[in-house]
Amino acid sequence: MSQFGDKWSFLIIRDLMFKGRQYYHEFMDAGEGISTNILANRLADLESNGILNKSKDPNKGSRFIYTLTQKGIELMPMMLAMMDWAEKYDAKTEVPRDFIEKLRNTPEELQQEILEHIPTPK
C-alpha cells in the first residue's frame, strides 16, 4: 500500500489504464469528487514511486501529460482482478458486462487489447 497510497491512487491508475485519461483536468472531471490538493498529492506520489510519468504536453507547453510506466502497466492483472471481484460483490460497480465476460473467458486477449490502447510517453 505504500506504493499506491489510497483509493484515489487506484482511481488514477484505473483512469490511466482503462479510460484513457492523461490530463489533470480529466482526473478532476472523472466524477468521483477528488479535491485538487489530493489529486496533486497522489499524482506526485505515484510519480515518485515510479508508477507514472509526468511530461510536458508537446502541443500545449503549459499542460502536463501523465502516462503509466512499465511498473504501472504491470499492475494490470491486479486491477483486473479487483474489477472482477467488484462486479461480483459490489452492486454499485460500473464494469460493462461485455468487459467482464471477456475478462473471465479470454483474459490474455483482453489484456493485450488494453495494452494496445494505453498511452505511452512521447
From TrEMBL:
Residues 1-94 form the HTH hxlR-type domain. It comes from the Bacteria. Keywords: DNA-binding, Transcription, Transcription regulation. The keyword Protein biosynthesis does not apply. The keyword Transcription regulation applies. Pfam families: HxlR. InterPro entries: HTH_HxlR, WH-like_DNA-bd_sf, WH_DNA-bd_sf. This is HTH hxlR-type domain-containing protein. The lineage of its organism: Bacteria, Pseudomonadati, Pseudomonadota, Gammaproteobacteria, Oceanospirillales.
